[in-house]
Amino acid sequence: MTVSRVVNGDPRVKASTRERVQQAIEELHYYPNAAARALNSKRTMTVGLILPKIDYVLSEPYFSQLIYQIEQAISPYNYDILVVSGLHQNGKDLTRLYKQKKVDGLIIVGSEINDQRLIAISDNRIPAVLIHGRSELPGLSFVDVDNYKIIEFFVNHLSSLGHRRLGFITGDLTVVNAYHRLQAYKKALKDRSLPLDKTLICTGNWSAGSGYDAFLHFYGLSELPTAVISSNDHMAIGFLKAANEHQIAIPQDISLVGIDDIEMAQFTVPTLTTMRQPMEALASQAVDFLMESIKSEASERFSSILEAELVLRNSCAPARSS
Amino acid sequence: MTVSRVVNGDPRVKASTRERVQQAIEELHYYPNAAARALNSKRTMTVGLILPKIDYVLSEPYFSQLIYQIEQAISPYNYDILVVSGLHQNGKDLTRLYKQKKVDGLIIVGSEINDQRLIAISDNRIPAVLIHGRSELPGLSFVDVDNYKIIEFFVNHLSSLGHRRLGFITGDLTVVNAYHRLQAYKKALKDRSLPLDKTLICTGNWSAGSGYDAFLHFYGLSELPTAVISSNDHMAIGFLKAANEHQIAIPQDISLVGIDDIEMAQFTVPTLTTMRQPMEALASQAVDFLMESIKSEASERFSSILEAELVLRNSCAPARSS
DNA sequence: CTGTTAGCGCTTTCAG
DNA sequence: CTGAAAGCGCTAACAG
Description:
Chain A is of the alpha/beta class. Chain A has three domains: 1-32, lambda repressor-like DNA-binding domains (434 Repressor (Amino-terminal Domain), Orthogonal Bundle); 45-145 and 279-307, 3-Layer(aba) Sandwich (Rossmann fold), CATH 3.40.50.2300; 147-277, 3-Layer(aba) Sandwich (Rossmann fold), CATH 3.40.50. Chain A has helices spanning 2-7, 15-28, 34-41, 61-74, 89-92, 96-99, 116-123, 147-160, 176-191, 208-219, 233-245, 279-295; strands spanning 46-51, 80-85, 105-109, 128-131, 140-145, 166-170, 201-203, 227-230, 255-257, 274-276, 303-306, 309-311. In chain A, helix 4 links the parallel strand 1 (46-51) and strand 2 (80-85). Chains A and B meet through helix 3, helix 4, strand 2, helix 6 and helix 11 of A and helix 3, helix 4, strand 2, helix 6 and helix 11 of B. The structure holds a DNA duplex.
């Protein structure tokens, strides 16, 4: 049909015919059948968005923001997104969606360390990009934030305020990001020749509840840290809550910082000093990389590391002169 | 092919052949092509999830929870979900996804009052169900929470604590839910013969910032309300923040309640009394209704109104005897 | 510039 | 119980 040409913007159609067809399309509310198109064009115009395995992630507003940003970024390409939680059965085989030809590529959020699922993706040459993850696998692109810089900045910031006992609350350590942040903490202490005290490292799992527990852990120590770096805002909020219940004042007794700049960070008492994730850039880069991978059959890798932005609020104070 | 029969569990295959085919499928990592299937079976095994138009929704953890629950509920049906924000262009024509044959039906979250888009859906006999919405349109099912009961309960609760000046913070009044809650507030006051003071009704938009502003509004009044009902937790948290900054103690000076029971409601100071949304039930009912509508060509309507559950925490106190 | 032919990978329907 | 034929709605390649 000539219709097909009009729909696809093929120039080889007389202007007048095009007009007539356009009009008919409008009148009949005609939409081309995506399944039929996908069947022979090998393009589904859909990408899969794989959310992390851990189940509390979706209670974090952070992820819904990300979904939103990705949707915004991909919409100019006329793509839709299929959202799959890594949690359940389907998540086991990330290649399913692609092999079924339901999607042209995958965006994977917050992959785990040594995620075996990524190998299958690379082996099958599935266009894919990781957000908040890294991989050396051929064909796998990634976009991440510079975790080292974030932590290094905070360690410097806090130690320049006179703090020497810096506590650290990790995220879920099976997740790449959490691990990097912990490494960065250790390195930064070393760089500033601050002592590394293992009791000041508390393993959390990103949830507010685990931040609450982290406070309890520190509170049980013979000496409190004078400042604490939390691997995300969520845990910092839990920490704040526990501190409040135990009459430990933030920031007077303990300075506290988080990461992400979730909306709630402005509404805590005191407001939370944190690092804002460049979420829009993260999303749009990821989308651009993925579109590039889908277009070019050659499985190139793209990657970029973005910088977080400091948001200075009221949860830090100089260390008490002792 | 016999393969097709095996894949679709057709019983008319010899057991031995079935085994051999199964094995080949495993070995070759074969997955049937969804586009081809969709093309002649008229089933895409995908549903569209339409999120609200308003852009701050996605900063609410509430919605990501919902996405998660829907995903869980639909996965046994072997369906995937395509997520579309109502915000941008595509949202204008909700029928697009269906007409393109990309989805078999739609789940629409938090529709607006007199949402024109719904008419097109009904007219086109697109299987659809509203979550947090109502509609009398033929073929449109819905699942909602009993907003009247929620508000009525709170009004009774607070007035039985001796409060007579009850403030109310609305959500975005273009949204069905927000409107119902406001109506319920007015009705409940009337039922208890409490005076309706318009200055005690403050129009918010669901965001924490608007809750903050609501406090400021009440604070500017010649007399503060002694208790405030916020149409969601998010705004209650903003309110809490503003109150704290102005040395108004919650609950001593003002009692406060929210709705939703978002995770943060446990981490505020004081913790927030609220109503938990039956989110899992909401999601699974919606999915069941939708699957039913998709199966039966007859455009039946299903609906159910679920009850929220009280979560009593520390943000309410008896009114001061004056 | 427009129409015809063929085929994408499946699931019918109808024969064997 | 298994195979062969036809067609879902589109686009690519070729004629006209």
